[in-house]
Amino acid sequence: MKYQLIREDLEIEGYEKVVRFSCEETKLDSIVAIHNTRQGPALGGIRMLHYGSFEEGLQDVLRLAEGMTYKAFISGVKTGGGKSVVFLPEGDFSRESLFESFGQAVASLQGEYICAEDMGTSPEDMQFVQRATSYVVGRKNISGDPSYYTAHGLFLCLKSVARKLNASFGDSLRGLKVAIQGLGMVGFKLAEKLFWEGVSLVVADVNDKITDIAKTRFGADVVGVDEILRVSCDILSPCARGGILNSKSISVLGCKGITGAANNQLESPKIAEDLFLKGILYVPDYLANAGGLINAASELEKPYDPRKVLLSLDRIPAIFNEAYKISNTKNISLERVFLERFQEEF
Q1: pLDDT tens-digit profile of 68-93?
Q2: CA geometry: angle at 181 spanning 239 and 212, to 5°?
Q3: Residue 186's CB: how many other CB atoms inside 10 A?
Q4: Residue whose C-alpha is closest to residue 263's, from 279, 285, 232, 234
Q5: For 8, which DSSP code?
Q6: Are 33 and 61 in contact (CB under 8 A)?
Q7: How many CB atoms lie within 10 A of CB 4?
Q8: Whether this model's pTM surpasses 0.85
Q9: What is the set of active-site residues?
Q10: Whole-angstrom Cα distance, residue 8 to residue 335?
Q11: 216 class by beta-carbon count within 10 Å (0-12 exposed, 13-18 middle, 19+ buried)
Q12: Tens digits of per-residue pLDDT, 139-177?
C-alpha cells in the first residue's frame, strides 16, 4: 500500500542529509539522519521513543548518527554512519502500518540509508519495513535480534578491561564485581554471561520485575537507579540510555573502569579526558557495543553466516588491546586515541 508521506529536508551542518518524514494516516513522525557515507551506505537502527519535543528527538538522532560513523570506522565495518528516530505516537496506532510507511520513507532515500532495529523496535517491525524497501537488516528470518551479538561483543571487551585492571584475571573472572545499569535486551544478556563467569553483580533498572529476576537467577544485589553509579565495583556497565556520564555524575563514581552498551554515554568528549585524569578506564561506547553493528552489516554479505559473525566479534577486544597500548604510550585517553585515528582518515 502506498502512503502519502510528507518530506522535509533539514539543513544540519556536518551531516550529509537529515530528513523528517511524516504520514498523517499512520501517525508516522520520524527523522532520518545520515552523518557520513565515505565508507559506504549509512547503516543504523530505528529508535522509537516518546520524546518531549521534536528538538529532543532531533538532537538524539544527530548524536546517534555521528556515533555510528565512529563505530563503523573503528570496528572495520564498511558502512557509513546513520540513524533514525520514530516519535512514539499518542493513543492507538497500527505498528504494521506505521513501519510500512517508514519503509516507504527509507526506500525514497535510494540506498543512502539502511535501517535496522534499535531501542523500542523489533525484528518483527523490520518485517513490516521490508514490505516497502529492501534497505533493511536485522530481519527476523535472517540475522534477527542483534542484542545477542551486542552483548557478546560487550562481554569480550569487558573481559579484556578486567585483565587490564587486574592481571590476575585469566580465563575466569571469578572475584570481579560489575555494576550494570539497565537490564534491557543487552544488559540482561550481559548479566547472564557474567554470572556464569563467577562475577559478583550489582544491578539497577526502572523495571522491578526484571531486577527481581536478576536477584533470584544471578544472585545480583539490587540498588536504585540513582545509586548504581556510586556502587564500589571494578567495572560499571551502562546499558540504558545515554548521557549519564557528566561533570556531576563522574564525581561520585565508585568504579575503576567503564564498559557498557549504552550509546552516547558521555555528555561531551571532555568527560572522557576527565575520567582519564581520575584514573578510570573508560572504553568508548562505539567500540564496546559494536557487536550489533558487526552482525547487522554481515547481513549485507550473501549468504549471512552467524559463525563468521561470531569470529568477527573477536575484533572488539583486539581493537581495545591495541588502543590501550597507544593510550599508555602517549598517556592519553582511549577516546582520544580513536578520535585521532578517525581524524587522520577523515
Answers
A1: 999 999 999 999 999 999 999 999 99
A2: 115
A3: 30
A4: 285
A5: E
A6: yes
A7: 11
A8: yes
A9: 83
A10: 35
A11: exposed
A12: 777 777 889 999 999 999 999 999 999 977 777 899 999
